[in-house]
Design goal:
The chain is an alpha+beta fold. Helix content is about 25%, strand content about 20%. The strands form eleven sheets. Strands 14, 15, 16, 17, 18, 19, 21, 24, 33 and 34 form a ten-stranded mixed beta sheet that branches. The relative contact order is 0.07.
Amino acid sequence: MKLFKLIVHQKNFSGEDLIINPKDYPGIKKGDIVEIFHPEDEFSRLLLQITAFKEDLQGRETVSVENNIATTFQLRTFADVYMNIVNPDDVALDSVELTFKDQYMGRSEMWRLKNCLVNTCVYLNKKIEFCGGSIRCQVHEMWSQGDRVACGVITDDTKVVFRSSTSMVYLFIQMSSEMWDFDIHGDLYFEKAVNGFLADLFQKWKKNGSNHEVTIVLFSRTFYNATSLEEFPNHMRECLQHDYRGRFYEDFYRVAVQNERYEDWSNILVQLRKLFTDYQKIVLEYHQRPGIVMPKAINSTAAQGNFLEVLNMSLNVFEKHYLDRSFDRTGQLSVVITPGVGVFEVDRELTNVTKQRIIDNGVGSDLVCVGEQPLHAVPLLKFHNKDTSINAADDYSMPHWINLSFYSTNKKIPYSTFIPRIKLPPKISKPPSECGKLPNKTKLLQEDGSECLRNTLFDYDAYDAQVFQLPPVHTASLQRVSTRTKKTSVACMETHSNSQALKLLKRKMSDPDIHHPPPDTHSSPTVASRSAAISIPHRADDLISVNSNGEVNSKPRISLIDDHGDVEISPPFRPVVGSAGSPTNSVTQPNNIRPGRALINPFDPSHVTIKLTSNRRRWTHIFPKGPTGVLIQQHHYQAVPTQSSPEQLSDTMSILSSSPNEHSIASINAQSTCQIPRSASQIGFQDHMKGKAIRLNFPLNSVDKTGHIGPPTTNNKSLTLLWGATGEQEWTPALTTANIGVDWRSLTIPACLPITTDYFPDKRSLQNDYVVSDYNLLPDDVNADFAQLRAIYKKPLNTAEVFKELVSQRLAQGFQLIILPPANKTQATTPGSKPPAPLSSLMRGMQVESEPKEEYLLSIGRIFHKISLCGNSITVTRYRPRHPYPPFNIHYRYRFHAPHHDTYEVSWVSFTTEKLENYNWNYLDHYICTRGDTDFSLVEALKYWRFRVFLLPLNTPATRRILDGSVHCDIYSPATSAEQANFMEGFLRFIETWLNRIRRPNANKNWEKHVMNTAASARTCLDIPRHNPHRSGSKVMDRGRVSPASEAVLPHSPELQQQQDHSECSEDSINAEVSKIKSSASNAEILEAMKQPHTGIGFLTQHPSLPSLTFVSAEAVQWLNNHIEGGVTVEKAIIIMEGMIRERLICHASGSFKKPFILGFYLYHIVQDKDGQKDREYFPPLGDLRSFENEWVEVEMKVPKGWCEPTAPTQISNISSPISIPSCDIIDESSVPVFLRDDSDLVFLTEDRERTALVSPYKHTHLDIDINNKSDRIEWGHLRYQSLFKTDYSYELVVQWVASSGSIVADLIFGWQRKAQLCGIQMVPIPSDLLALPFTLKSDPLRGPIFIPLHTECLMTNKPYLFDEFREDTYTQRLFLFQEAIVQRFGFVPCLVEGTENDHQYVHVTGNAFILVPSTSCIRARPRTDTNIIRRITGQKRYPVHPDQSSPHEAYITRHVSGKNKDDYSMDRRVGFLWSWNHMVSRKWKSLSTSATGDELFQKKIIQDFRNFCSNADNRLRQYWESCWELKEKTCSRTE
């Protein structure tokens, strides 16, 4: 060993962790792992990998370590250190945990990141970057050989666990009746839950820097004392449900916090306490009305509550994670906090649905109990016993898919250390008549002696054994032996003797997974252990006692010698009793046990094994391996106290049982077989292996009585324990909350579903239970075919890339890689110890002649895929269950109260299991293979990821005024023509530069002088208020014309932007007048002028899929207006261009003459003659319209007034103006608000709207996502965009992808958002379901729109109808136009959203909120039915909003609006608005936005003011109405 001098360096000196001079250490090479440590220190040894050499390192024989690492490992600068090369296998890690925050990391990225970490060295807190730094994570914890370590090497076998500090967390607080009980310390359980548990949790989040997106919901179930529906008043009936016992109940959900992220959660605790105060009163008395009798309402207990329903509510949100994809969080967690003890009475079918959904979706589910921990295993689900026969025994299930924690406060009681494990029932005082009847008691005592004797001899254990097992059928196999002995003072908490014969009975448990062990009489009977009184040392080789069916007695057993120590094997049901010997009378078999059904004993789950399934092993790879070689959950693990006497030791610690297929005795050190008891502290420090690096002091080894250190193991690989998340840790009653009860890690940094698992069915099971199908892919052949068909050539993926991508896609959809233990190594290996590549030879022992090069096995639920690569062919083999589970669809009704709402509203939802076997993998694999070719478009069933955004105008003066403190918010006026023209200019520029990534050719240096009058300069002189202080607002900027005011020119390409400041244009170039074209010129002459290099139209840069001389249609129209004498109108310009297409002078850039001239961002080119085509630089058009449209974004635009107006006064086309705010100086009808105009105008408006709807609303194009080449693979996606842009509407874009990394998509979109702001556009993310109506398929069941009623009564004075002055068939439409006018005063702009033809949706110009104005089934007015007359007679002053319509929004409003007096379904209340918030605006988005997007104070202010206005506060609504009528009257009087 050689001594070196240690120096440190900073990150800015070198990015490497370690720098050495190769001359100092001959033979060392890059990639070697070295350990570095001070000779005299006992502290951890640092492992680093050599990644770089530096020949000129200062001083001889020095090594330089990065400063932070040296500090962490307590290495002293300039001190001597040893440096040795170590063998990577000696320091290999079993598992490593990586944490990351504020980013979205998909499962495919996790796998690719893991692959790139193999054979690298990691240490605590090491920062890791991937995909060019767009993915960042940090090493949190490492385990090796049963201990936590501080550094190590990641190998193929290392399990990498990803934990996210920013997840989506649902906290459900069960407000069952126990919440109002007191615990042993005298606190209410609610206080224990909120002031205790939640306060601790929030503190841990803060300390850890966790920043979750949290929803907090209080929930409860109310039972009603009633026997029939008739006992309920009408207003209560709509949400009632009844259970299997016929009890009526209603479920209530109070959403306290919805999708919030806070730095400080303490205010929320206060809010929860406020809600608690009157929660029970509100819920129980919710339906009470004066004078109406209703059944008594009772709050349910925790056990009878809506526990599973709550989990399913969150799953409905979680399983749609690909719809509203947020880029700054990963991971999903449901936490239920209950005052109960972890026992729930549930419906069997709902349990199956919940289990299947939780496991398939890979969602973490935690149950935190604040009640006392019971003496049996929990969580425990008791199935509803629908069998009415009296003898039916209860059926239980222990879900392994719920992670259990018990929370206890740290309060100490001065006089006692006793921790109760049971809640005492309330005392019931006896009626006085009982008193004085003492003879009863004495009679009890004078019981018949023989009876008494029989009681003592009755073997309860044997009786219990019968209940929990099936009676043997004609087998003379061994029966259970039981020895009852006096318990000694050492508490050995065992409830069953673990005798041999108990195991031999065939069992059928109520859980479908439970295993039926065959009777096996070959192994020698082990002695039942009942007492720790006398122990016999084992022989050294007799480490493990195995039961007859291969199950382990995994508690350290001590053989027992009693006075009568002979062990008998007795005939059936002959009880063996204690030291009195065996009486001969046999106990008859109880006859009330249902045959064929054995039950789970929750008091002794450790003897119940179940058949291993993939579901059981889905999460196991997130658990570290403990010292005994089994997977452990750290909060269920008790460290061994330091004691000298091993006798005491074994009773106080919890011992772990073994995993089904791990026999890792190899990790136990050489002395482990000696009989000398060693103290726990020694064990903790002892180095198992010589080359081992650090051992943190973590004494976790399990020691049995005789000092053996080592795991008990099972021989049967197909069994696993029933209880617990790992299936390897045994439940003991000693697992108390006092030691460590809460899985804080899971609640603070939840683990993502691991990418690996280790279960694959055996050969027999594959044949019997699965249907096999396979198909081959030949990527090269497929792509060769497609290359001939496609005009645009994209480099296809090669076969290896396709192969890797197929694995990636399955991981992304929730599959896991199966890592099988190699068959050729010794039994001492662990699962996951083989890279997946060469598995095929080991797979079920098949030898194939042509060995495939690579093969992967993947699974989800009961679906297995094998993907193998051989040469240039990929084979996909799918195994699907022969008998798939039936699909479930459970309908559920409930009431919920969301933030900003006033009432508990009725809603309903469906819980369905997804049929994963129906996913069309063959289609997706071809999609990947062809790199997203147009033949394989993304369809909904593929569950592709998407991100929706709206584009809105950026700087609205009214928003600024509200932020600056304007009292009212109805101060928005329609955009002026200049503002609309600017919005359109900005939009054109955004599409060209950022969506299409077109760069204009950079001309010579005095570029500004020449192109002042060409369209190319137009994009340089775009008006952006912040950059252009000189702008005179009077004149509208055209693209091809510079206003005489001195203009700041914005350079058009990003390269230029950096190089030069906005230079002023020189005077002479501006004044140079261009010769105009005569207005009578022919098309050919106009074309020649367009081609002129300086004065002509600006052409786009050459691009392989664009022909030469390509221009944009909107620019052509502007150019014509600027260059023809007197200018032309937009209509005239379009006619000229159409004529050019007919004369074949110009053509659509795809080469298709069929495409007409469309104004907007559409690309056309000048058709060249024969000579022109011979030019070397000539690019022909593609000649394929479909390919062209898949490459370029082209949008039609509806031109606003004032855009490109001719200078000569020509007739202006009639464009409908947006609703104008009254101003009193114009005479014609256009100044009158639309809803008061004459009927002829109304017809015109509706036709305009309907015409808009005729265009196919969306187009698709291929999208390059990885524009900065950061990824380690080829990535692509698609852009779905609206085909029509209107300046007074929002504009929608949707980015869609399956073959992209989330972080790279995020980079692209955040880049767009910044660039859009430069173009005067604000980009805002929006949810897939804007209004969140709680019964739409995609929506969150706990989110719903807020109904804001419009108080029209105040406007009607004496009129029977609001619009009584007009024709009756226009009422409906006028009302809608009136509502629209109000919405627009508050700054909402309409959005064209698919599937909502009849409903009008609006988005606030800041993107903060959406409004829906529920409309009639058709905008055009139609004759009323005779319902009006009926309404009049009943005295309601209101026309109905289409009584014949049943839109969900109508139903929603009818049902929810009328607040407390639910019987009051009057029509008056139905006019109003549905308002919902935009929950997609994340914190990162707010920080990038320059406007009020995501500003909470702004949001509160605007909804408050909108409510006030609609309710006519301060008479505002009435004043507005009257001002509108004044305008109408003025117009009428003038025209008269």
